[in-house]
Task: inverse folding
């Protein structure tokens, strides 16, 4: 919320340094965060919507019908060709996206 930070981002400053205060379960921690601007190339793809519905249905079948809440269940195992982990993370049930 610091106006100087916002202005630095708008000015495309190549590096930003921040001190972050984190209070978790009564423990105070201070973290230093260094952000460096760099070029990142990526591809945008289009996925067949029936493929997405099929993967979501498989996940819902396992969670609701089979009552399998194991985090290593088949419907969320990595299948690079079908982008299974990525697609299932967009489903509204049971497998939210977390950033670590």
Result:
């Amino acid at each position: 919320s610091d106006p100087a930070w916002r202005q630095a981002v708008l000015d495309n400053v190549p590096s930003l340094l921040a001190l972050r205060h984190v209070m978790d379960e009564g423990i105070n921690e201070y973290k230093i965060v260094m952000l460096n601007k760099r070029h990142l190339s990526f591809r945008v793809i289009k996925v067949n919507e029936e493929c997405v519905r099929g993967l979501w249905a498989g996940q819902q079948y396992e969670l609701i019908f089979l009552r399998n809440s194991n985090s290593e269940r088949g419907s969320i195992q990595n299948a690079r060709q079908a982008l299974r982990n990525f697609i299932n993370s967009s489903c509204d049930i049971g497998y939210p996206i977390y950033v670590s």
